[in-house]
Amino acid sequence: MRHIPFALAGLTLALGTVPAIGWAQNPDAATPAEVVTKVREAVQYLNAKGLAGFADFNNNKDARWVWKDSYVFVYSCREDVMIAHPLRPDLVGRPILQMRDDKDRPVFQELCKAGAQKDGGWAEYWWPKPGEAKASRKISYAHGAAVSFKSDIQVGAGIYDDTLTPAELDKIAEEAARLQKAAP
């Protein structure tokens, strides 16, 4: 039991160090730490709820999965479909793998690669902030979720940032995973 406070303190430090640099000026912007935490909470939630949990992510801007300028979305790479999106119900049920951003990047192909990593990963693309039409640089953290024996489900959420790289953010997520595994 003595290791838990140290592990949580380490996790807080690991997730809190980098985000504090860029987000101190905008309290309405989601931080990388919040994104990792929300995605992992969503993965655990779906693991427990199964397929019935998908509805809790859909078309509900006031749900716990929407905060500041970010939100959690759920998709299937193998089935090539958006399963749940709280702010864009028009995307639910639609193919995702051919979607390209303003810079012609295959958004979900990159997210699927990132989310397939053991501890999840980050993918960079251009996407409009909630309430805006113009695309901004977005970096999303994706992580796989085992939902009712479907191994291809992924959960994602992102930050809008012009400075951090996916590699820098991967280090934050890796450190968080290492600290969680170290906790008894």
UniProtKB/TrEMBL annotation:
Domain Double Cache, residue spans: 62-163
Record's keyword terms, sorted: Signal
Pfam family, one: dCache_2
Organism: Allochromatium vinosum (strain ATCC 17899 / DSM 180 / NBRC 103801 / NCIMB 10441 / D)
Signal sequence segment: 1-24
InterPro entries associated with the record: Double_Cache_2 (IPR004010)
Gene3D superfamilies named among the record's database cross-references: PAS domain (3.30.450.20)
Transmembrane segments: none
Protein name as annotated: Cache type 2 domain-containing protein
